[in-house]
User: What shape does this take?
Amino acid sequence: MSESWRNWSGSVAAEPAAIERPKTEAELQALVARAAKVRVVGAGHSFMPLCATDGLLLQLGDLDGELEVSADRQSAWAPAGWPIGKLTDAMWEKGVSLVNQGDINKQAIAGAISTATHGTGRALGSLATAALAFRIVLADGSVVECDAEREPELFQAARVSLGMLGVVTRIKLKVMPAYRLKETIERRPLGRTLAEWDELANRHRHAEFFLFPYSEHVTLKTLDIADAGEADAPEEADDTVFQAVCDLATVWPRTAPTLQRMLTRAIRSSERSGPAGRIFPSERSVRFEEMEYEIPAENGPDALRAAMKLVRDAGWPIIFPFEFRTVAADDIWLSPMQGRACVSISFHQYARMPWREAFAGVEKVFQAAGGRPHWAKRHTLTSADVLRLYPDAQRFGAVRKRVDPTAKFLNAHLAELFAFSL
Ligand SMILES: Cc1cc2nc3c(=O)[nH]c(=O)nc-3n(C[C@H](O)[C@H](O)[C@H](O)COP(=O)(O)OP(=O)(O)OC[C@H]3O[C@@H](n4cnc5c(N)ncnc54)[C@H](O)[C@@H]3O)c2cc1C
Assistant: This one.
């Protein structure tokens, strides 16, 4: 009997022919070899229909495997289906931490890497830049390991692959000796924050801010390595008040600007510290829809101002803030950060409120600023856009076709986006 499937925000639904949770690699190999169409889902946190399929949907949460940390504490082999939170807790036990993380720790590590999920930090790349090797079950059920020396083209393609090459079962990650972080939250004027952005981004290991489009103040969040002596602070506040505000805006959309200004005024300065893996993630219990573009760093502040102006001029009742982060350049074929240092600007809306018109408008602003979208978040790229934006798209396509000639791992969305590789 088929089970239905939905993504985290509720905007993508599918009726897979079967959902399987293999316990061993041999079981997984047999399932892949037999199936005509396969997609893998991590935690289902993508907003685009990356995991949607009417074929076989695989979930690797039950697959056996352990974390293996190298003696020099510089790398670790991890089960690909583990949620990041489980991974970082296990890493802490073994004396290592990830170099950087994003806003939450619910994603499977393979899901996060496959879409170039990132945190913030001018000198730090996306999670995909931490991948040193992959173990992959290919379309015919065979297993291959690849890294910079073994199957280097497959490795390059696998670093950001949207699950198009096969099922990743284990990933070797660059890690570092375990460290603690101190988080500082502060309310600041937008103008001053943008004027001082270079200095802020250089001074802190991680700097980012949140900005409601109808407010002139931001919530600045910085993270820096903490001394071992600094005391752990209580868990951060929950989202109950924000949930109530979003529900109010759903009923009375015109109140959105006033509600936003109230929320911004209520922000209090705070600090907390603890193990890195516990301080990076935040609570995100209010469901939203999201678009995000990675924009050449020098264009970031103007793009943000232009997007704000558009929202205000149109009067769209956006109740969620923009998020403004930095990500280092990388050399990954399908990475939005390929070849250029970026600022990442996210635009969200409460999942129960309309978002399509506002996203379409703001997407044009981000594209005019030279942006490439986050693959997992709302975008309207075509196959021609992928070829235009990604100089190595054809190289990726050639690897994809070699390892999966019948396009077993492509769903309708990916077959359209990567039509040039068929
Ligand atoms: C609340 C929330 C917060 C977020 N915060 C951030 C953030 O801070 N930074 C950021 O950049 N993004 C962020 N995102 C986006 C999110 O990180 C990506 O959508 C990510 O891909 C989700 O991971 P997942 O495990 O849910 O993957 P899924 O959405 O389940 O899958 C993503 C892709 O990975 C593939 N995949 C998954 N597992 C495997 C595997 N084992 N082998 C091969 N392919 C696989 C899937 O087929 C699919 O193509 C956020 C999303 C939400 C909902």
